[in-house]
Amino acid sequence: MIKKFLKRVFRKSAKAKSVGNAQVIPFKLHGVAREQISYGALKVTDGLQASGYQAYVVGGAVRDLLLNRIPKDFDIATDATPEEVRRVFRRARIIGRRFRLVHVMFGEEVVEVSTFRRMIEAEDAQTDEHGRLLRDNEFGDQEQDAARRDFTANALFYDPATQEIYDYHGGYADTRDHLLRIIGDPLVRYREDPVRMLRAVRLSAKLGIKLDAATAAPIAEMKGLLDNVPQARLLDEVLKMLLSGHSLECIQQLRKMNLHHGLLPLLDVIWEQPMGEKFIMLALRNTDERLSQDKTVSPAFLFAALLWHEVLAAWNLRVQQGERPVGAMHEAMDEVLARQREQLAIPHRQDAVMKEIWLMQQRFEQRAGQRPFRLLEQPRFRAGFDFLLLRCASGEVDDELGLWWDEFQDASAARQAEMLQPEGDGEKKRRRRKPRKKPEVPAVDESAVDEPVA
Ligand code: ATP
Ligand code: MG
């Protein structure tokens, strides 16, 4: 009790001091201890400092520690060039072409080290016709490095040796106030890099902090600039959102700000479909929960969920027009993926997994003969089954189907035999005789489904 009281008085008496243009915030004020920094990051800052360089923990890690969160990783900023960094550490390699960074390895931990950079002056800057920066990798000093960063909370430098934080843009106060504020003029900063608009949404959702009003205001009118951003970067950012552990808030926020157009364009449509919204919300909540329990989530599973009701709609349309179910499913999948690709290209290797998950959904309906056993042997059975459970939870299919599979997969051989459903209308026999020419059975043509989907 007394200790706590003394600590509080002590903290109050501690003050930040100015060094050049930086506010230097002492440990007594911010309370982030050296012990909270990862083993590898300490090795890197200590090693570089011992060789006469400056070195700080920077960016997301400092921000997260101030917000009492566990950082995902610890990035280091230094005045040493990549070559100089590499010379200090035994296991280090330079990566990246545009931004040359160094990865220093300590067992499992990889610490990313970047040399201070500066923003290139307006007249020298290479931008596209919309003002987007094409190059910003000139080396600079610490102050310049702070100015090129996106948000004040992301521009704090922590020195583990002195346990001080260097703050050039009021990021310490903003973080304490739970405010995400862009550095500089928001119009200029979004023009330089429109992805910052998405980062604003993601970081505020993930950290549960508010977007400063001036930071949020221009987004509505500037969102069109996202159209000029290379696909790969957009996809990266969307994945970060989906895998942030706060995907639900991120997507809701994106929608609220009308930023989802051109990213996941099909979301518009999906939300208008009767069960689409519920399904997606469940899928996102489920993902967030898995991440909070340190379970893995696959991007393909998520994309499969996001696009599922589009696939269903396209499939239904074709079946109503008299196409056969399995063929219709293949075409529906290709159509939806092609449409999505025009906006935001999901990598081909994800396509294959998405298709497997989608195709399995038809096979879950088949509960007679050998078919359920074959389905169980599918390498992605688990993903397909999890997907089925989401469909049950959203009301798209009867819970009974999910419960059946839940029991069947772990049941004894005797119980499994008992559970199997009778072959319907002699369909199996007909299929066996003429499997390819007359696939009259709704849902499954196993010869098509069993092939690996390329
Ligand atoms: P996360 O916890 O999601 O990793 P982060 O802030 O660490 O969040 P990173 O993408 O790892 O995000 O970026 C590291 C740092 O690089 C940021 O904290 C920020 O200072 C800077 N940064 C990243 N992207 C941009 C950008 N588009 N414009 C300016 N600075 C950026
Ligand atoms: Mg980071």
Q: Globular, elongated, flat, extended or rod-shaped: what is the shape?
A: elongated
Roughly what fraction of the amino acids lie in strands?
5-15%
Q: Give the strand tally.
A: 13
**Percent helix range:** 40-55%
| Residue runs with pLDDT of under 50 for 5 or more positions | 426-454
What is the CA-CA span between the terminal residues?
Answer: 65 Å
Bound ligands, each once: adenosine-5'-triphosphate, magnesium ion
Order the strands across the largest sheet as they lie in space. 1-2-11-10-3-4-7-6-5
Q: What's the architecture of the largest domain in CATH terms? A: 2-Layer Sandwich
**Total separate domains:** 2
The top level CATH class name of the largest domain: Alpha Beta
Q: Count of DSSP helices?
A: 24
CATH homologous superfamily (4th level) name of the largest domain? Beta Polymerase, domain 2
SSE map:
Blueprint lengths: L1 H12 L3 E3 L2 E4 L1 H4 L8 H12 L4 E4 L1 H7 L8 E4 L3 H7 L3 E4 L5 E6 L2 E7 L1 E2 L19 E2 L2 H7 L7 E4 L4 E4 L3 H6 L2 E2 L5 H7 L2 H13 L2 E2 L1 H4 L2 H4 L8 H12 L4 H10 L9 H7 L3 H17 L6 H22 L4 H19 L4 H16 L7 H6 L4 H13 L5 H12 L2 H7 L7 H7 L12 H5 L4
Parallel strand pairs: 4-7, 12-13
Antiparallel strand pairs: 1-2, 2-11, 3-4, 3-10, 5-6, 6-7, 8-9, 10-11
The structure holds adenosine-5'-triphosphate and magnesium ion.
The site of magnesium ion (MG) has 5 residues, from loops.
How would you characterize this protein structure?
- It is a single chain.
- The protein is an alpha+beta fold and about 450 residues long.
- The protein has two domains: about 15-190, Beta Polymerase, domain 2 (2-Layer Sandwich); about 260-420, cca-adding enzyme, domain 2 (Orthogonal Bundle).
- The chain is built from 24 helices and 13 strands.
- The strands form three sheets. Strands 1-2-11-10-3-4-7-6-5 form a nine-stranded mixed β-sheet, with helices on both faces.
- A hairpin with a 5-residue loop joins strand 5 and strand 6.
- Helix 16 (about 300-320) packs across helix 18 (about 350-365).
- The longest helix is centred in the C-terminal third of the chain and has 22 residues, at about 300-320.
- The protein binds adenosine-5'-triphosphate (ATP) and magnesium ion.
- Adenosine-5'-triphosphate binds near residues 59, 149, 154 and 199.
